[in-house]
Amino acid sequence: MAKVVAVTGNEAVANALRQVNPDVCGIYPITPQTDMMQRYASFISDGKVDTEAVLVESEHSSMSACIGASAAGGRVVTATSSQGLALMWEMLHIAAGDRLPIIMPVVNRALSAPLNIHGDHSDAMGARDTGWIQIWSENGQEAYDNTIQAFRIGEHMDIRLPVMVCMDGFIISHSIERMEYLDDPEVKNFVGPFKNLYPLLDLDKPKSYGPLILTDLYHEYKRAQHEVMLKTKDVVLEVAKDFEKLSGRKYGLFESYRLEDADIALVILNSAAGTSKDVIDEFRGKGIKAGLLKPRLFRPFPYEEVAEALKNTKAVCVMDRSDSFGGYGPLFMEISSALYQLKQKPALINKIYGLGGRDYLPSHAEEVLQELHEIAQGGKLKIIKEYIGVRE
Amino acid sequence: MATPLTLKELSKKEDLLTHGHRMCSGCGAPTVVKMVLLATEHPVIAANATGCLEVSTCISEYTAWKIPWIHTAFENAAATLSGVETMYRSLKKQGKIDKDVKFIAFGGDGGTYDIGFQSLSGAMERGHDMIYVCYDNGAYMNTGIQRSSATPLGADTTTCPAGSVIPGKLRARKNLTKIMAAHNIPYTAQASPSHWMDLMKKVQKAHSYEGPKFLNIIAPCNRGWRSKTNDSILLSRLAVNTCYWPLYEIENGVTKITSTPKEKLPIADFMKPQGRFKHIFDPGNEWLLTRIQEEVDAEWEKLKYAEKCGC
After folding, report:
1. Given this model, what pLDDT does residue A197 score?
2. Residue A309 lies in domain
3. pTM, whole model, 2 decimals?
4. What's B276's domain CATH number?
5. Structural domain contains residue A94
6. Is residue B37 part of a domain?
7. How far is A173 from chain B (nearest CA, A)?
8. DSSP state of B2
9. Band (B43; pLDDT cuts 50, 70, 90)
10. Tens digit of pLDDT for each residue in B82-127?
11. Chain A interface, mutation test: which of B86, B124, B125, B132, most A Cβ atoms within 10 Å?
């Protein structure tokens, strides 16, 4: 029986981790994630989980210890944000290259300088090419659901890759929402026991982890990582189907909101999608066919499916909560790549919004949708990339 | 039951770092590793920092390690092994594993004194049950002899070259052994492969304690020291007999010198066979040799004093 609760995103994800009961976790404080893993530390102190924590002296050591623990053979989690994820960057590649299914909630936060503790997506976008699966979450419920599903995805015997579950710092991590928890046995049963693959602790069959590989085989190893990513979409959908049976909540590679007959569309990640949907409803009320696509699986990116979903639109705006300075926003680059394969392409613009926790307001969505509407009506596309909500 | 430290008994034991690795001829590091593993009873899991030892012992698709072994990066052998050890404790607590396992991390001085210092300090403070072994050759040898904080005063390296104005490294070594002892861990020791019995006794003693232990072991590098390939053991003995590398242990906070040279030799005896100190003997650099001798003497006196006061 599902239990309805009013909790913060951090509390919900900490609870998901408790229900999974991993063998080892790495804990290191960083705003806005701190609150999640300190809750988890209480579960350990109160004997509610079997987990042994490594209370590391940095995020670099946290990911290093997680890699050691995962290679040893068992289920491993940690969580981080912002500078912490940036400090882990070197080790993220190693976790993925060693094919270790570590699960890591990432509470998205801006990167310094200047120092800022609030939510944007610069941290996770900086980890885009590390070989981790990335799943993004609009709200606390999705963060909770995605965390539980992440174990099944990353630990799948055809995949064996680490997974980041992203949610917006403060906006989601610290806001109390109504959501539904699954029962502990349901989660335990859904996730299943951890299956080992080449554990170091199999002392009778010694393994060497982390060899030097030169020009003769490195290229092949990297292709193998690419190929396993290609299989991931199917596993994500298969796990989502099982999860729907359990929870009644449906997940895909992305969410399409009123997109079927849409002329104009926003593509937007995480919490700002919620605000945007309200404004899309208003535009629909005015007779303007607006829709929204909210990516869920960002790595691997479902290019074909996204192109299919947007193929009948006339104008699309990709909203980025991070920037690749001197380039387009990282989400824009993906959507642009996806749409390039279409014969008939919609007009495509890029707005950078909400950096360092700057509020994303319904009025911002209105302005963007109005601009898209004008472009769809045959108006001129004035500028491809632009910052919105900026104080001049 | 630990293997008796006699050549007869030790010769019956399997080498856990096997032949076929690609360390340089005359390198001290594999000798150190073999001695450490010979003094270790099975089962044991090792972690390795990036460095000569790591790149030369596990080149895909071969490995020289007959024990479970993990390398992840340069600065984190202690953190990586702390994760392995934590998983072991978790599974043991849950009844999923019943064997007693030992854990040893190996790192060079670059990966230990410098870039891995934070990770090492953290792992020691957290109390993981492991021995961290630093094989100290006094520079970043794997990348081609660059200065580290273990590089001795006056040494010529590629990043502190002995030039016409600056005669090599102008700073003394960091005393890492003492810094590790200051973590109040049960056992810290300094050893040398020239004194193999002393080295292996220290390994056995370290294993007898639960919790974090640190061994600093000198490992001559003929490439970086500019010495003869057959002089590794000779040089590690001279390091001990000149008191450049005193053999001592700090057990539960009590310092003990485990081998005192019969005759304390001048530091020049250790330096002369090494090309990295050649310039020290040039006219005009006498002051530097004097300073080096003074620093060695002062450290040796401090150590004797620490032993005398039981601290």
Report:
1. 97
2. 254-387
3. 0.98
4. 3.40.50.970
5. yes
6. yes
7. 27
8. P
9. very high
10. 999 999 999 999 999 999 999 999 999 999 999 999 999 999 999 9
11. B86
